[in-house]
């Protein structure tokens, strides 16, 4: 009985917060657009009894999913999102790894402070931080003013409203998610392993590649998934920093919902996005599980 | 024996392979190695012995290149090695913590150093196979370090450090986790390797028997200082001070005052109501100087009657008997309360042995049976 309760808690949680919304969205994605409240048909009319249920199900179809394949906006948006998510994950890794490494190597008494500095940005609103990037990256922004002042450039660079600004925004926002798991694995790394590798003929650099990197791959994987998964569906950063030309599926989704008020298509977009995300999420889970097993 | 033929430390012409010159190592304000000077010669099997925390690993780490001396210099084959990184030293170290690479199989761990040298594949494979055979790990080559036992891990660490056949091999407690049989086999293997390859070994051990078996010389350390460096038999038979005598093997220590009686013979007055003892010493002691007499239990004879003509004889009763199979150690309490240990071979069955608890007995030893040390 107690075991049942213990298992029931997470499953109820999952049911309430994931499965139920998923079923609702899935149902909407199979519906047709309508000028009504809510803006789709059919709606389930239980008052009509068996007949009502039958008409309800006969009204559902996969039209919207077919539509997604017909208009090239959607798959372009998916591909563009994938590209942006992959590239910004790679950048986050390239910047995050050295920071995590430095953190793990820093003197013990400094670490809490350094860790604080990494988490500190989370203490202000995410929106405010993205807006302040607009102030930095715009044509009259701090960055351009500074570069003009140093004489490195003569004309202001156009960064805001390009995909570069989106990359900067995503890397900036998700960097701590990359740093923390990598730091956790590097912190546990036994220093004597590096010494042993050097003793056996490795240079500093080859010891890093042969020992440190393989032993922190769990952290790299965890960090990459934690950046990649939210970056793929990102909406705020591309719409604030990316301008109209940056195509991301999160933005398309938002427009379908709020501008077009086409809930069924938006639902279909969301379901496909979820399916795309399920692959990395499952991989992530497998990675976590393997890690847990290796530690036993 | 080896030590009578092979004794480069007695040859003033011989060039040491390793030379510690007034080496001091401090960690913050803590002095781990204190002004230590030591020469180790090529092809030696040098054992470091000492209590936990006395600085054995620190000495190894300085040789391996993981620590630099705070003061003094360390020479390897005549060259100062401070600042030479570990991968540029012809030295391999077996770490006390093993430091096996957890993401690599046993096989790959052993092959690691060979591959870094860029040796051809089949040569690496042959060498690894040889090492696996030596350490009896043939069956475990494909396993990861976390899938084998503690003793097996230790053998992997040993195999990995041996694989490159370096000029100097540093072994930090290489056999602590092995059972006696395997340990003896490994000891002989090491000695064999040493003879074949001429590798110089520096080995840390907590096992005196091991040090005695394998070492050409033994260094007894305490608190970052060398207390005595000598061949195993000299360390055992003629320790220079009470610390060494007490540290190596079982020993009775009697404190007293020495008086010169004849040529190199001293009378030792040691306890109220006990007859004075006699012992020889080649180092001079002043009359009335406090001294220690160290007597190994196996040099003490136990008998029911006072042996005729015994120079040193004391009377007491058996307090305790430790049965060790081939020998027994008798703890005998004297009238003064002092307990002296004597060892006797068990030539008879245990039920028929001559002494039992509470029996009055005599303990005796010769004038050269004990070692007289200045207090
Ligand atoms: N990195 C370090 N920082 C501070 N103190 C250290 C450091 N390394 C060693 N010490 C100290 O130096 C002393 C000698 O250490 P070492 O590891 O050489 O001992 P050991 O003789 O090998 O002992 P054991 O037999 O337990 O292995 C110890 O008191 C230890 O605490
Ligand atoms: Mg040690």
Characterise this structure:
The complex is a heterodimer of chains A (296) and B (375). With 296 residues, chain A is an all-alpha fold. Chain A folds into two domains: 41 residues, no CATH class; 230 residues, MetI-like fold (Orthogonal Bundle), CATH 1.10.3720.10. Chain A has 14 helices and two strands; from the N terminus they run H-E-E-H-H-H-H-H-H-H-H-H-H-H-H-H. A two-stranded antiparallel sheet of chain A has the order 1-2. The radius of gyration of chain A is 24 Å and the shape is globular. The two termini of chain A are 28 Å apart. The model of chain A has no long low-confidence stretch (mean pLDDT 89). Chain B has two domains: 234 residues, 3-Layer(aba) Sandwich (Rossmann fold), CATH 3.40.50.300; 125 residues, Nucleic acid-binding proteins (OB fold (Dihydrolipoamide Acetyltransferase, E2P)). Helices cover 24% and strands 34% of the residues of chain B. In chain B, strands 6-7-8-3-9-10 form a six-stranded mixed β-sheet, with helices on both faces. In chain B, helix 3 packs across helix 4, helix 3 runs parallel beside helix 5 and helix 4 crosses helix 5. The longest helix of chain B is centred in the middle third of the chain and has 18 residues. Chain B is globular, with a radius of gyration of 25 Å. Classes of the chains: A mainly alpha (296), B alpha+beta (375). The interface between A and B is medium-sized, with 19 and 23 residues. The structure holds adenosine-5'-triphosphate and magnesium ion (MG). The site of magnesium ion has 4 residues of chain B, from helix 2. Magnesium ion (MG) binds next to helix 2 of chain B. Chain A: It comes from Antarcticimicrobium sediminis. Chain A: Belongs to the binding-protein-dependent transport system permease family. CysTW subfamily. Chain A: Its main location: membrane.
């Amino acid at each position: 009985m107690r075991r049942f309760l213990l298992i029931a808690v997470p499953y109820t949680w999952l049911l309430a917060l994931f499965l139920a919304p998923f079923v609702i969205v899935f149902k909407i994605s199979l519906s047709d657009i309508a000028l009504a409240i809510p803006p789709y048909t059919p709606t389930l009319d239980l008052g009509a009894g068996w007949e009502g249920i039958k008409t309800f199900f006969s009204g559902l179809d996969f039209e919207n999913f077919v539509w997604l394949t017909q208009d090239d906006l959607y798959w372009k948006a998916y591909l563009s999102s994938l590209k942006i998510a992959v590239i910004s994950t790679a950048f986050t890794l390239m910047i995050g790894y050295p920071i995590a490494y430095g953190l793990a190597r820093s003197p013990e008494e400094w670490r809490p402070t350094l860790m604080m500095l990494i988490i500190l940005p989370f203490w202000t609103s995410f929106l405010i931080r993205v807006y302040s990037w607009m102030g930095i990256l715009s044509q009259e922004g701090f960055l351009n003013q500074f570069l003009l002042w140093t004489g490195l450039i003569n004309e202001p660079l156009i960064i805001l409203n390009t995909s570069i600004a989106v990359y900067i925004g995503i890397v900036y926002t998700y960097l701590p998610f990359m740093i923390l798991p990598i730091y956790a694995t590097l912190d546990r790394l036994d220093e004597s392993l590096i010494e042993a590798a050097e003793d056996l003929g490795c240079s500093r650099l080859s010891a890093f590649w042969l020992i440190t990197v393989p032993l922190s791959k769990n952290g790299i994987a965890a960090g990459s998934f934690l950046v990649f998964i939210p970056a793929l569906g990102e909406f705020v950063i591309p719409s604030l920093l990316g301008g109209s030309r940056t195509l991301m599926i999160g933005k398309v989704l938002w427009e379908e919902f709020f501008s077009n008020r086409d809930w069924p298509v938006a639902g279909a977009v969301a379901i496909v996005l979820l399916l795309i995300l399920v692959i990395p999420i499952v991989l992530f889970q497998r990675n976590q599980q393997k890690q847990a097993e290796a530690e036993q | 024996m080896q030590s009578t033929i092979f004794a480069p430390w007695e040859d003033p012409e011989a060039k040491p392979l390793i030379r510690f010159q007034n080496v001091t190592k401090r960690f913050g304000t803590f002095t781990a190695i204190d002004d230590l000077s030591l020469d180790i010669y090529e092809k030696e099997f040098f054992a470091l012995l000492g209590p936990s925390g006395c600085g054995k690993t620190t000495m190894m780490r300085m040789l391996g290149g993981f620590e630099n001396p705070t003061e003094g210099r360390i020479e390897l084959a005549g060259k100062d090695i401070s600042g030479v990184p570990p991968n540029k030293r012809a030295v391999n170290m077996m770490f006390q913590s093993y430091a096996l690479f957890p993401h690599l199989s046993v096989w790959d761990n052993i092959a690691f150093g060979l591959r870094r040298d860029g040796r051809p594949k089949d040569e690496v494979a042959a060498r690894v196979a040889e090492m696996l055979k030596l350490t009896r790990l043939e069956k475990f080559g494909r396993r990861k370090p976390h899938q084998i036992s503690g003793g097996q891990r230790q053998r992997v660490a040993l195999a990995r450090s041996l694989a490159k056949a370096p000029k100097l091999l540093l072994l930090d407690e290489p056999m602590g986790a092995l059972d006696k049989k395997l340990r003896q086999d490994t000891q002989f293997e090491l000695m064999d390797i040493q003879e074949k390859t001429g590798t110089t070994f520096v080995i840390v051990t907590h096992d005196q028997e091991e040090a005695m078996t394998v070492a050409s010389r033994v260094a007894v350390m305490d608190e970052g200082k060398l207390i005595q460096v000598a061949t195993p038999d000299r360390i055992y038979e003629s320790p220079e001070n009470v610390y060494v005598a007490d540290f190596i093997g079982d020993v009775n220590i009697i404190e007293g005052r020495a008086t010169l009686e004849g040529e190199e013979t001293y009378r030792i007055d040691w306890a109220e109501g006990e007859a004075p003892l006699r012992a020889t010493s080649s180092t001079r002691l002043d009359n009335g100087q406090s001294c220690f007499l160290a007597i190994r239990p196996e040099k003490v004879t136990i008998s029911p009657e006072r042996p005729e003509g015994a120079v040193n004889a004391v009377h007491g009763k058996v307090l305790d008997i430790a049965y060790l199979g081939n020998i027994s150690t008798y703890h005998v309490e004297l009238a003064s309360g002092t307990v002296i240990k004597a060892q006797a071979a068990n030539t008879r069955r245990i039920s028929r042995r001559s002494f039992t608890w509470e029996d009055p007995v005599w303990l005796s030893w010769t004038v050269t049976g004990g070692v007289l040390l200045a207090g």
